[in-house]
Amino acid sequence: xxxxxxxxxxxxxxxxxxxxxxxxxxxxxxxxxxxxxxxxxxxxxxxxxxxxxxxxxxxxxxxxxxxxxxxxxxxxxxxxxxxxxxxxxxxxxxxxxxxx
Length: 100
What we know:
Layout: E1 9-19, E2 23-31, E3 34-38, E4 48-53, E5 62-73, E6 76-83, H1 86-99
Antiparallel strand pairs: 1-2, 1-4, 2-3, 3-6, 4-5, 5-6
């Protein structure tokens, strides 16, 4: 098995998403490449969404412009981040650095 491209971190923060699917859930782990979302039902694999990661109550959410659902179950799904602008990517990177 190949090692993961990005380190994952266990977290708990809100996410909202819209596009092919829409709703609100809780991110339970995050990396620079994506996240796992706890959600009330299955969503469509290969669905495209934009998402707001609410990393902190004190700051505006990080905007993921394009993400794709890579897997889905009755309790959640995995998102692969496809496009964040450089400012948002930097903000996510800073958040992740604080987790280590």
